[in-house]
Automatic annotation (TrEMBL):
Residues annotated as domain Alpha-D-phosphohexomutase alpha/beta/alpha: 52-87, 114-169
UniProt-listed InterPro entries: A-D-PHexomutase_a/b/a-I, A-D-PHexomutase_a/b/a-I/II/III, A-D-PHexomutase_C, A-D-PHexomutase_C_sf, A-D-PHexomutase_CS, AMG1_II, AMG1_III, PAGM
Keyword Ubl conjugation annotated: no
Pathway named in the protein's UniProt entry: Nucleotide-sugar biosynthesis; UDP-N-acetyl-alpha-D-glucosamine biosynthesis; N-acetyl-alpha-D-glucosamine 1-phosphate from alpha-D-glucosamine 6-phosphate (route I): step 2/2
Reactions the enzyme catalyzes: N-acetyl-alpha-D-glucosamine 1-phosphate = N-acetyl-D-glucosamine 6-phosphate
Function: Catalyzes the conversion of GlcNAc-6-P into GlcNAc-1-P during the synthesis of uridine diphosphate/UDP-GlcNAc, a sugar nucleotide critical to multiple glycosylation pathways including protein N- and O-glycosylation.
Keyword tags: Acetylation, Carbohydrate metabolism, Isomerase, Magnesium, Metal-binding, Phosphoprotein
Protein name as catalogued: Phosphoacetylglucosamine mutase
CDD domains for the chain: PGM3 (cd03086)
């Protein structure tokens, strides 16, 4: 283990608190920033091993997304910009939880199991969000990378999806810059909106809640490439407020109310990013003061409808499917299946599950209700679209549709859900179709719903099945939920342990808000 001498020396500077156990959860490790220094160092080590194994660039993102500012987290990004493979999540937990004296043994164990050639070059790229703890924690990642004799490149402050995209570009094109990212997405947006009816131009004003995070900084950078074709009024830009505090996509979605710090007029289109800008939700208030939320389900509906129409108009034979989780509003599922005649798949929570399911289709539109999602095109579908867009022998009508489709493909960050690219896509679809936010909202009416969370002694005693829609243990809980659900009309409810917080989440929907609230409350009592 001579090659690990430096690891042995440096790891003492990043000691693990004895007995602390953490799990690589829904989106990597997440906990109070104070407990993460050793985890960051070790994720630097693991990223090097993963890079040697895959002979590719690997990403390490330091963020805790929508969690409070004092938390932090880290996740690894695999060569094509996707979440790290499942077996490596287990190695991550193993390495993070090894006591100080077991660290080298644990490292060596992974090297052996994966038959890693330690002489292979490695390359790791690192990014971070705006949390006060992120800078020093990313330095711990650099330490881990360097003590295995490897190189890293620090992208500094970036959104999570930007880093995913950088990993993808490094491995497919050999280089990756943020400027390329902005150019690619803004050009596609400008091409698409050129096709908008003239009156729609006047409506291209958007209020954005930046959650006081990285998304606000990066939106400012993106704006410089948009040639004033999208007029953004940015709120919660981080200059005064606290990250995710009373603002951001998670707050708006869960509380079902506008963020603090935004000044919205009746009918104005608004959106919120989360703390690392991989989620987005839209909303507006109508003339009688009602708040209307357009969440990930509404976004998926808008985008999949647009894509399906273009595919039909272009005369292509491509299957468009939607992937959702149990949190998807029942009305959205019914609309997609019954009205849009689309295949709808339900997976477990966490984008890695949705992403994998979406890969099985020509065009897979996946969104979590909280606004995290994107669209995946199979390689064959993408090739077909690009080829047809270049073909001289098609009718004008088809040509128009295929060019819109081609630009839409270019506007999407297929590596992961991306608030900036999703925002541009939504704005472009609304502009091209000449739709306002109310027209979009009118596609279907959400069932009233409520999300709650409760702290229990040990959330892991709850296990689930059927894409988390039914409880397996503890015994009797599912029967209790079934009985409560039966009391209400159009009702549905489920519980599951969170993968990012120490809580159990409860979801309920029903025909009225009072019923949804009551059902969620009753189910929460059954969980205790
Ligand atoms: P958990 O804490 O496992 O529910 C939350 C979100 C996920 C996903 C992850 C990662 C809900 C109900 N859950 O996971 O959808 O986005 O955070 O950020 O919104
Ligand atoms: Zn996020």
């Amino acid at each position: 283990m001579a090659e690990f001498e430096e690891v042995s020396r440096k790891s003492k500077l990043h000691p693990k608190p004895t007995g602390l156990k953490l799990q690589y959860g829904t989106a990597g490790f997440r906990t109070t920033a104070k407990h993460l220094d050793h985890v960051m160092f070790r994720m630097g080590l693991l990223a090097v091993l993963r890079s040697k194994k895959t002979r590719s660039t690997i990403g390490v993102m330091v963020t805790a997304s929508h969690n409070p500012e004092d938390d932090n987290g880290v996740k690894l990004i695999d060569p094509m910009g996707e979440m790290v493979a499942l077996t490596w999540e287990e190695y991550a937990s193993q390495l993070a939880n090894a006591e100080q004296e077991e660290l080298l043994h644990s490292l060596n164990d992974i090297v052996k199991k994966e038959t890693i050639d330690m002489s292979q070059e490695a390359r790791v790229i690192v990014g971070r969000d705006t949390r006060p703890s992120s800078e020093s924690l990313s330095r711990a990642v650099f330490d881990g990378v360097q003590c295995l004799g490897s190189h890293f490149h620090d992208y500094g402050l970036v959104t999570t999806p930007q880093l995913h995209y950088m990993v993808y570009c490094q491995n497919t094109q050999g280089s990756a810059t943020l400027e390329d990212y902005y150019k690619k997405h803004s050009q596609a947006f400008l091409h698409l909106t050129k096709n908008a009816p003239v009156h729609a131009n006047a409506q291209r004003r958007l209020l954005v809640d930046g959650a006081n995070g990285i998304g606000a900084l990066k939106l400012r950078e993106l704006e410089a490439f948009l040639q004033k074709q999208l007029l953004v009024a940015l709120f919660n830009d981080g200059s005064t407020g606290k990250l995710n505090h009373l603002c951001g996509a998670d707050y708006v979605k869960v509380q079902q109310k506008p963020p603090q710090g935004i000044q919205m007029e009746v009918g104005e289109r608004c959106c919120s990013f989360d703390g690392d800008a991989d989620r987005i939700v839209y909303y507006y208030t109508n003339s009688d003061g009602h708040f209307h939320l357009l969440d990930g389900d509404k976004i998926a509906t808008l985008i999949s409808t647009f894509l399906k129409e273009l595919i039909t108009e272009a005369g292509l034979d491509l299957q468009v499917a939607a992937v959702q989780t149990a949190y998807a509003n029942g009305s959205s599922t019914r609309f997609l299946e019954d009205t849009m005649k689309m295949t709808v798949v339900c997976t477990k929570t966490g984008v890695k599950h949705l992403h994998h399911a979406a890969q099985k289709f020509d065009v897979g539109v996946y969104f979590e209700a909280n606004g995290h999602g994107t669209v995946l095109f199979s390689r064959a579908a993408e090739e077909q679209i690009h080829q047809l867009a270049k073909s001289p022998d098609i009718t004008n009508e088809k040509k128009h549709a295929i060019q819109l489709l081609d630009n839409t493909v270019n506007l999407i960050n297929q590596t992961v859900g991306d608030a900036l690219s999703d925002m541009l896509l939504i704005e472009a679809v609304l502009a091209v179709r000449g739709m306002g936010v109310q027209d979009w909202d009118a596609m279907y009416t959400d069932l009233p719903n409520r999300q709650l969370k409760v702290k229990v002694a040990d959330r892991r005693v709850i296990s689930t099945t059927d894409a988390e829609r039914r409880v397996v243990s503890p015994a009797g809980l599912q029967e209790a939920i079934d009985k409560l659900v039966a009391k209400y009309q159009q009702a549905r409810s489920f519980v599951r342990p969170s993968g990012t917080e120490d809580v159990v989440r409860i979801y309920a929907e029903a025909d009225t808000q009072e019923s949804a609230d009551a059902l969620a409350h009753e189910v929460s009592l059954a969980v205790y």
